[in-house]
Amino acid sequence: MKGFAMRKIGSTGWVEKERPQCGPLDAICRPLALAPCTSDIHTVWAGAIGDRKDMILGHEAVGEVVEVGALVKDFKPGDRVIITAITPDWSTLEAQGGFPMHSGGMLSGWKFSNFKDGVFAEYFHVNDADGNLAHLPEGMDLGAATMLADMVPTGLHGAELADITFGDNVAVIGIGPVGLMAVAGAALRGAAQIYAVGSRKNCADLALEFGATRIVNYREGDIVEQILDLTRGQGVDKVIVAGGDNNTFTQALKILKPGGIIGNVNYLGEGESVPISRLDWGCGMGHKQIRGGLMPGGRLRAEKLARLVTAGRIHPEKLITHTFHGLENVEPALMLMKDKPRDLIKPLVILD
């Protein structure tokens, strides 16, 4: 089979590999729709997880099952499925302890294009199929379904990590596709004011549609000053960090009230450390929590999020701004994520 791969740090290309083998609990799928992610960019061009040689990229897919292992109960060849970007080993102690995304070690639930070949291929392997596949609801838009692999669960996990409750005032820093779903998650959880930090007009417009009450444009001034001015110096109850860099936490701490929580779902792909301002953290005693987490993944979460789509509670298909057709167009779609033109939110590749 062929797949689009990271050849080494800073280099990508097409490779030929053997079709993956199916274990007794596993499945082999072929993709129906794919989406490149900023994480792929960090992986290849920043070397965020170290060097990888000829590793097939991609972790966002909707697919069709072509083979299942002898012990798989709930899926069969021909089933159309959502494949979660995070595919834990559900029998591990970490999963039993409530942290399936770290099954087998920190971040080890993230297998695609990290520890094994990803989904940008003619076929791909899914471990623990009964736990990591979800049936694609009939009639669901393929773009919306593909966003359920990563963008939706990651964005909503930001709202979970920040523990947003009714009436909280919230800042969402970064309104790319994950941040936009974090805005939607904050609104679903009952936030009052939602200050969405970003500068692109299409992202700002969609943030307002998803529930933001105010756009804070970092090109128009320091976001700390803007948010403190909007809150009359009080700051916000919760912050979701879905963009920026290692220094963003300094800004997040400055706008966070004592007793508040920062929920981070931003992938920090570069640098050795994250600076934390001692004074803004209350000299370590300000009761300002920082929670960073990889989204849980798995079938149950995907099925529940699919219910939100079918019920009309969220509209992830609106994240799609560029659509390509054919596996060969994974490469230009990925380059869009690398170059980030102003009109881009998320590209989608449909396999005809």
What is the element layout, followed by pairings?
Layout: E1 2-8, E2 11-16, E3 27-34, H1 38-45, E4 55-56, E5 61-68, E6 80-83, H2 93-96, E7 124-126, H3 129-132, E8 133-135, H4 142-147, H5 151-161, E9 170-173, H6 177-188, E10 194-197, H7 201-210, E11 214-216, H8 223-230, E12 236-241, H9 248-255, E13 256-264, E14 289-292, H10 299-310, E15 320-325, H11 330-339, E16 346-350
Parallel strand pairs: 9-10, 9-12, 10-11, 12-13, 13-14, 15-16
Antiparallel strand pairs: 1-2, 1-4, 3-5, 3-7, 3-16, 5-6, 6-8
Helix pairs in contact: 5-6, 6-7, 8-9
Family: Belongs to the zinc-containing alcohol dehydrogenase family.
Pfam families: ADH_N, ADH_zinc_N
Cofactor: Zn(2+)
Overview of the structural elements:
The protein is of the alpha/beta class and 352 residues long. The chain is 26% helix and 23% strand. The chain contains 11 helices and 16 strands. Strands 3, 5, 6, 7, 8, 15 and 16 form a 7-stranded mixed sheet that branches. Strand 12, helix 9 and strand 13 form a beta-alpha-beta unit. The protein is globular. The chain starts with a strand and ends with a strand. The mean pLDDT is 96.
What tags apply to this protein structure?
single chain, 352 residues, alpha/beta, 7-stranded mixed sheet, 6-stranded parallel sheet, 11 helices, 16 strands, globular
Short structural description:
One of its GO terms (molecular function) is oxidoreductase activity. With 352 residues, this protein is α/β, with parallel strands linked by helices.
